[in-house]
Amino acid sequence: MKTVEINRIGGAEVLKIKEITLSKPEPGEVTIEHKAIGLNYIDTYHRSGLYPLKLPTGLGLEGAGIITNVGANVKEFKVGDKISYAGIPLGSYSSHRNYPTQNLVKVPENIDLEIAATLMTKGLTTFYLLYKTYPVKSGEIILFHAAAGGVGQIFGQWAKSLGCIVIGTVGSDEKISIAKENGYDHVINYNKDNFAKKVLKLQMEKVFQ
Questions:
Q1: Is the model's pLDDT at 165 over the cut of 90?
Q2: Long-range contacts of 71-78 (CB under 8 A, 24+ apart)
């Protein structure tokens, strides 16, 4: 079993692969054999010291894999389950790890674990925006910045599936097609157009009717 650990802050050179032997999972935990992990900007913040951590420490907040062992009092999961997660404790940069079950979700059989590992953080962010920050309703108009980014691509598809009219902004013409392929009705290159004026113009032209 292997894990990535840092003993000092810095660039990628501080990442060190370490051989580990896992103990049995504690009550409420399971042992996961990772099949894929997610890489996020926050990982670089932890590594660089921008977000200070007590050292030494593992890295990584997002992963997907197979449960190989379960601790006491675990009833929702069993050995062999496909799972994915996003959140503390750090340590997804590893071949195996023990992890608390409260942050786990089961992955349907028809979803690849590599796909699942890329979706948790971005998907939860999208869920929060659409259901918690402001519960949207069908027919409402939404403006979303960075429409071609990771969260933006999920957001466009999800908002469109809810019946919303979705406007996105991007930083280049090359990204317009990416946004449109992911559900955006109108896409604005903010380096060419003032997006506020462009949205107002769309409204005046009654394109949302």
A1: yes
A2: 71/24, 71/25, 71/26, 71/27, 71/28, 71/29, 71/30, 71/98, 72/27, 72/28, 73/27, 73/28, 74/25, 74/27, 74/28, 74/29, 74/30, 74/101, 76/101, 77/30, 77/101, 77/104, 77/106
The pTM for the full model equals 0.83
Mean pLDDT of 158-173: 96
Joined together, the tokens standing for residue 38 give 């997610």
Residue 207 confidence class, pLDDT cut points 50, 70, 90: low
The pair of structure tokens assigned to 179 is 């946004």
